[in-house]
Design brief:
This protein is of the alpha+beta class and about 425 residues long. The protein has 13 helices and 20 strands. It has an eight-stranded mixed beta sheet with strand order 3-7-8-15-12-11-9-10, with helices on both faces. Strands 17-16-18-19-20 form a five-stranded mixed beta sheet, with helices on both faces. It has a three-stranded antiparallel beta sheet with strand order 4-6-5. α1 crosses α9 and α6 crosses α7.
Length: about 425
Amino acid sequence: MRTQQPPASPPSDPAPADHRRLGRELRLFATDPLVGAGLPLWLPDGAVIRAEIERLAAEEAVRGGCQRVYTPVLAKRELYERSGHWAKFADDMFPPMKVGEEEFLLRPANCPHHALVYASEQRSFRDLPVRLAELGAMFRSELSGVLGGLSRVRQINLDDAHVFCAPEQVRGEIALALESVLRCYRLLGIDITRFRLSRRGGGDGFLGGDGLWAEAERQLGAALADLGIGYSGAEGEAAFYGPKIDVQVTDPAGREETLSTVQLDFNQPERFGLRYVGSDGGRHQPVMIHRGVLSAMERLVAHLVELYDGAFPPWLSPVQVLVLPVADQNAEPARHVACQVRAAGLRADCDPADATLGARIRRARGRRIPYVAVIGDREAADIQRAEDDGRVALRLRDGRQLGGVPVARLISEISRQVTDRSAGLGFDA
Ligand SMILES: [Zn+2]
């Protein structure tokens, strides 16, 4: 599939795109001191983008054989003592909330909850792999000073899945996860800088014995090799429970960051006593794979805002079609076109004639709206006469201007872009 190159920054603005500035200008998200730093409010236009990403995540999870679960964002302290998070991460967690004799914590990760979903029934080798997916919220008690925009936040909404499988299924499951990453990045137009195999190295604070780590690191390397993916190693960058594959991307300012991760874990299944009945009738311990394909919604959306400099492909654009009546007398036909576009499941808005047409077109350009449909007297007469088969004068974000475009064609072209999630604007001759 063709992917759109991020547009060059306009000449008046040589600085690389910054999602905090664009987030304000495009009204994608806001913060309020009453809520607190690192706790962004997703405004309606930002919420559209996130909802589209969440929809992609849900589709991809189904395609990857996952079952959806919902689990609570808090649990008793004992859960995170059992998982090892409390010993390792207590300083990064919000302090316990005492309710009667019990203490609750906002969760630092979704994994322990999914381990307990696995443990909620007896499993046989025939049930494996069990793949559980949730777009779940987890929490970090970051200090206010280090927080900014969407890149450092206190609530992280993660596209998360945990696969419980037999040891001989690990390679195939890792390959499945990596294929999912590659497919999603193609759709999103994100270039992968490199794959990184993050190992334990000589550091301490990691759970589990040498043998388990060596085997886990070997399996991840083998899965990458199976897919012909080159990678570099990073010592000491592993998760505390196991090694991982990090998918590294670079932002427009040249900073590298991790988006997706695939992690291999022999330790959590041990700590939670997870078992399945094998073909030999004996009880065996499954392997746990942490699969974060689309990463945190905050981190991914920040990356996409900067990658596209706010000019999102049509399927992600908060407003896909802006309808502009040239003058007040064209308002009713303009509203009618916007209604038709919305009835087809697309996102349309109407910008009334409160300013000159030129000023409103510039405003639409500032909002990076992909399609602007202009309704003058000629189009209005046509729409009123033909009802369902009117025509509009169309301006595309890339500068093209097309006269006399039937509304039905407008809808079918944009619907195709949105269904394909292809990044182009369509309307090719
Ligand atoms: Zn996990």
